[in-house]
Specification:
Elements (H helix, E strand, L loop, with lengths): L11 H7 L3 H20 L7 E4 L6 E6 L3 E9 L5 E6 L5 E10 L11 E10 L3 E10 L10 E10 L1
Parallel strand pairs: 1-3, 2-8
Antiparallel strand pairs: 3-6, 4-7, 5-6, 7-8
Amino acid sequence: MPKPLRKPKLSRSSFAKTSFNWSRFFGHSYCFICACALIFIAPQEKINQQQVGIDQNNTTIELSVGEMLQIELPGNTKKGVEWRPDELDESIFDLTEAYNQSLKKDIPGFAEGPNLEHWTFKAVQTGSSTVRILNYQPWGKKDMVEKNVSIKTIVKL
């Protein structure tokens, strides 16, 4: 008849050596959780942005270097007219973003019809300038402008 198996005797010190080290595990986990919290909860650098529409035509806006000027203009691509910058001092402003947002919700991806054209400029240097955007047919003559938006800007430190 086979001998029955005996349970090995474990002293407290040998048990501690063979068991999982929980304090070490929680120490590493705690560091990981703190690092994640610093990354996701830490305050992000806020970039000030001033938004202007067609109703602020012929106004003056003051900006600081590094601030953004966003211009939103209503358009209609069905008529073939587009907003295009005509006057922009590139030593004072950088065009950082320009896109067209369709306002037709019923047909996704439909390009014709009412839209909003967005222009975002970043003030990179002090000075005063005028940002002028014209609404016309690009293949036509520039003197056949339907609308224009002109914003006088003063950029300070």
